[in-house]
Amino acid sequence: MSSLLNADVIEALVDRARTSGGPVDGVNELLNQLTKAVLERALNEEITDHLGYEHGDPAGHGSGNSRNGKSGKTVSTVAGPVRIDMPRDRNSSFEPRIVPKGARRIGQLDDMILSLYSRGMSTRDIQAHLGEVYGVDASPALISKVTEVVTDEITLWQNRPVDEVYPIVYVDAIRIRVRDKGVVTMKAAHLVVAVDVDGRKHVLGIWIAENEGAKFWNTVITQLRNRGLKDILIACCDGLTGLPEAITTVFPQTVVQTCVVHVIRNAMRFVSCKDRKKIAAAMRDIYTATSIDTADIALNALEKAWGEQYPGVLDVWRHAWNEFVPFLEYPPELRKVVYTTNLIESINYQLRKITKTRGHFPSDEAAMKLLYLGIRNISTKRGGESGTGTWGWKQCLNYLVRKFEGRLPLN
């Protein structure tokens, strides 16, 4: 704006505002008047371009179309509600671009609503914010309508093509409350995040379900296959009923790797505070073992020392053992990558921040809308459409090429 208005012009506008008795920074005063002037000037330029002649120019006589007065219209802007005069033509063929016909909000107000919504603000919170800060009267119904514009975007995003091969895929979930058939129930929003051959991470989709199981996960994995996925080298997940079986049914060569951190956390639930450090040290000998044999020795030592007092700890490890041991074959660089689903948990943490303010969602669609906007907001901050990188990926990739020979594209 400073390049368009010199100091003298700005000073004149400020003096005029002071002379009129209005506040210089008032929503409906100086900024409002300036916005009105700019919009009306632009509209007049547009109709001149549309008609092909200036106002009052004799060249317009007999042209077949001419100006036909103006009509008043109020639009909401970031400077507050602005009353403008919209020029008209006799043939009603003028279609303004800066303030389109039917538009009631301009100046990125819709983007502002989406931004506030994606950060967890409720529709009524947004209504109050717009009213207090910008003097805009936006009803909850209007705000909901604005956020509905992402519905088609979600459908396209959830069904977009994916890569044929992903070296690593993480799966985890967050719990949300959703009203279903008149009753508020707890559901899981499952996120699938993949690491591509360049080490970039991408959220492949979100699936909401009340109950997980083989049927649900078969549907998810089949959808990914139908979107172009042909192979997964390592799938990292934790305690999701039916998921390992669904993955190996569709992709028989995939190694299903449990999240080590989840195993540790689940085991520590059975340990009293006074023994937590000792048992944590004993478990460390298991997941830092250099081979399956040494890990088995460390597990037996844990059982001998603590099995009688904390049998639940041993049950957790025994139950997860078959999906834990593949981890022990990886080099240190790859262990750091698949050690935990912390990558996806960091995303879930951000999503929990924006969902915790909601008592519950009125529907699965409403929950999906907020989760998608949250993911879009996180992605914009952390790498955009290209995703975010993976530390030490080149060393991991060299190992994966040898370990899973012939399954990774080399060009």
Automatic annotation (TrEMBL):
Residues 51-76 are annotated as: Disordered. Keywords: DNA recombination, DNA-binding, Transposable element, Transposition. It holds the Pfam family Transposase_mut. Residues 64-73 have a biased composition (Low complexity). PROSITE patterns: TRANSPOSASE_MUTATOR (PS01007). The keyword DNA-binding applies. Required for the transposition of the insertion element. NCBIfam families: transpos_IS256 (NF033543). Belongs to the transposase mutator family. PANTHER family: MUTATOR FAMILY TRANSPOSASE, TRANSPOSASE FOR INSERTION SEQUENCE ELEMENT IS1081. This is Mutator family transposase. It comes from Kibdelosporangium lantanae.
